[in-house]
Amino acid sequence: LSGVVEPEAVSFDGTNDYLLRTSDMTGNADGKTFTFSCWVYWTNESSSTVFTTTNAFHVLLDTGGNNEAHVTANNSSGTKIFDVKLVDGSSHAIPKNTWSNLLLSIDLANTSNRSVYINDVLFSSVWVTYTNDNIDFTSTKHAVGGYINTLNGSVQANLQGRLSNLFLDYTYRDLSIEANRRLFINAEGKPASGQDSVDNYSLTELYVGSQDNTPLEVFMSTDGTKFYMAGNTTNSVYQYNLST
């Protein structure tokens, strides 16, 4: 059809197909913040895993026909500290047989800093578990399109459909700001053309809300290697180390 632009995608047959990385990500660290986005075209009714790590992070499209989706996370002790359920009545929260964008950004230290968008529309999510703790992002295995068995590390392929532009980093972004959503989905509801540079965006963003969410003043050292923030809530001054 004229004007239709589909994402470049990887296809999964739901039986044998999955992508697996058998080592941790470079520079990976546990933390309380993350942004996740993906474009998905899924076709089967059964549970469909988009992304999972060995012990902690799991994005699931549907749980056995209950018309819901889940994003869950554990801490390093294996305790579930985050669980958001996406429910849309009798229909699927993320519709089947069409391309959809799932976008969420989370800060477990602040219940005001959390949102889920589906196709650029704010979704009324059910926050089942939301604990101020570090997610165990460091993992020996990361899988796309398959579920990792935490007991023996085996992978079960269970996504039937296509995935594209899957993104995960450990930065909180205020998705109520349109410019932040445009990093992943454009105003026409298509994949953002500049998503390959979004990592550079995250590296230049300094989020101070986990220390103090009412900063009064900010200032730099004369050599540009120190950033200071004076916080009103904690009556403290915080120092951040920067590269020039």
What does this structure look like?
Helices cover 5% and strands 40% of the residues. The protein has helices spanning 178-181, 198-204; strands spanning 10-13, 19-21, 33-42, 49-53, 58-60, 68-74, 80-87, 100-107, 114-118, 121-122, 126-130, 142-144, 146-148, 155-157, 160-169, 215-220, 226-231, 236-241. The strands form four sheets. Strands 2-12-4-5-6-7-11 form a seven-stranded antiparallel sheet, with no helix packed on it. It has a six-stranded antiparallel sheet with strand order 1-15-3-8-9-10, with no helix packed on it. A hairpin with a 2-residue loop joins β9 and β10. The longest helix is centred in the last third of the chain and has 7 residues, at 198-204. The mean pLDDT is 85.
